[in-house]
């Protein structure tokens, strides 16, 4: 299956299990891969024959910046549902959400989750 990728999308949001996270907020890095049949677009050179990744970015941004969840798993699930609802050609989604500065005492680059969803 062909892929459309959005990598390293950065958003400031208020998601987290701790009250400090929901009050102070933090940066969330989101990578999203969409499985889409791109054969028609590869021949036609027409935006109508693909999924407009700028609109997908705005869909992700809306959830990441305007909503508030305790779990990034829930944030990822909500983003997947919005993408499936708004973009019929998307057959599957892999989404990764990373927190670079979670409230964990220790040394690490980042923590995060990855979901894989297939259209039902």
From TrEMBL:
Protein name: 7,8-dihydroneopterin aldolase
GO cellular component: cytoplasm
Documented EC number(s): 4.1.2.25
SUPFAM superfamilies listed in its UniProt record: Tetrahydrobiopterin biosynthesis enzymes-like (SSF55620)
Domain Dihydroneopterin aldolase/epimerase: 4-117
Cross-referenced NCBIfam families: folB, folB_dom
Catalytic reaction annotation: 7,8-dihydroneopterin = 6-hydroxymethyl-7,8-dihydropterin + glycolaldehyde
MF terms (GO), sorted A to Z: dihydroneopterin aldolase activity
Family statement drawn from the similarity comment of this UniProt entry: Belongs to the DHNA family.
InterPro entries: Dihydroneopterin_aldolase, FolB_dom, GTP-CH-I_C/QueF
Purpose of the protein: Catalyzes the conversion of 7,8-dihydroneopterin to 6-hydroxymethyl-7,8-dihydropterin.
One Pfam family, short name: FolB
Record keywords: Folate biosynthesis, Lyase
Residues making up the signal peptide according to the UniProt record: none
Matches recorded under PANTHER family: DIHYDRONEOPTERIN ALDOLASE 1-RELATED
